[in-house]
Amino acid sequence: MQRIEDYRKEFIAYLEAHTKLEEPINLYEPINYILALGGKRLRPILTLMTADIFGSDYKKALDAALAVEVFHNFSLVHDDIMDDAPLRRGKATVHEKWDINTGILSGDAMLINAYQLFENYEGEVFRSLAKLFSKTAIEVCEGQQYDVDFETRDDVTIPEYLKMIEYKTAVLVGAAMKMGAIIANASLEGQNSIYEFGRNLGIAFQLQDDYLDAFGDPKTFGKQVGGDIIENKKTFLYLKAIEHSAPEQVKELEHLFSIQPADATEKIETVKSIFIDSGAAERTQEEISIYTEKAFVVLTKLEISEEKKLLLKKFGESLMQRKV
């Protein structure tokens, strides 16, 4: 087994080797830009790690890992356009640096590039990877639509919200891991179990991301802190605050999430205070722990060594302790 950092270095080297500035420049330069911005490389690392855990040479999973990372970044380019987000990983978003049309077209090309990478696999492995990828890609789109719909709805429930983040974020984490298992020819039970581990970890990861969006350090978070509040997104924090706040606080919160002032500084600080006073901030952290533990329970069913289970558990714990 490799160390997490070894997987990351191997993947980044592979990414850089496959990054070319082709013609037309205005199509490929934005693609290279977003892929070079860094990030945690969580999903491709999980693909490589899973292949290794199930006894395969993890290098066989590099194309699948790259496909997952390219698809993930495609979704970010389009999400940033939809959210009118100015920053991604501390740098200007693609549509800000170029323009909206460039962001749309370069994102489209990235989606196609992701599919092309699966062509490097043959037979049943190719079919299984392509089928999983297609299912996951449409679920991510469904999750994004739910997210957009929720911005204008006043009756979003917590189960609906959890379904949205499952589709928008968690299914891709699960798929990234299952791809590694498919490439390693793991049993169907092993493939499905590692998917469930990733899916639960992905929900916890997104809840943590929502928490950091409000309470993260701008210097380390890499995105605009308070972005969800500015966009009036009904996150888990918001829904829990509505559920547990006094009537006057509920009224204030609903009003704040119906406006978009030119200067949102006061709005952000007021909303964050309500999140804390209502206990929503604490309950969100509790929910993160619940889904992390659900992921760890799945590990007990996996027919892999205790050493490998411990590696997966430590990786999960590190994600939940992150500040970025």
Structure notes:
By secondary structure, the chain is mostly helical. It has a single domain, classed as Farnesyl Diphosphate Synthase. It is 74% helix and 1% strand. It contains 16 helices and two strands. A hairpin with a 2-residue loop joins strand 1 and strand 2. Helix 4 packs antiparallel against helix 6 and helix 12 packs across helix 15. The radius of gyration is 20 Å and the shape is globular. The two termini are 26 Å apart.
Please tag this protein with its features.
single chain; mainly alpha; Farnesyl Diphosphate Synthase; two-stranded antiparallel ribbon; 16 helices; 2 strands; 74% helix; globular; Polyprenyl_synt; Geranylgeranyl diphosphate synthase, type II; metal-binding; transferase
Helix-strand category: mainly alpha
Second CATH tier, the architecture? Orthogonal Bundle
Strand content: under 5%
Please bin the fraction of helical residues.
over 70%
Gyration radius, to the nearest Å?
Answer: 20 Å
Beta strands, count: 2
Broad CATH class: Mainly Alpha
Oligomer: single chain
Distance from first to last alpha carbon: 26 Å
Overall pLDDT level: 93
Pfam families: polyprenyl_synt
Family: Belongs to the FPP/GGPP synthase family.
Organism: Cellulophaga baltica
InterPro entries: Isoprenoid_synthase_dom_sf (IPR008949), Polyprenyl_synt (IPR000092), Polyprenyl_synt_CS (IPR033749)
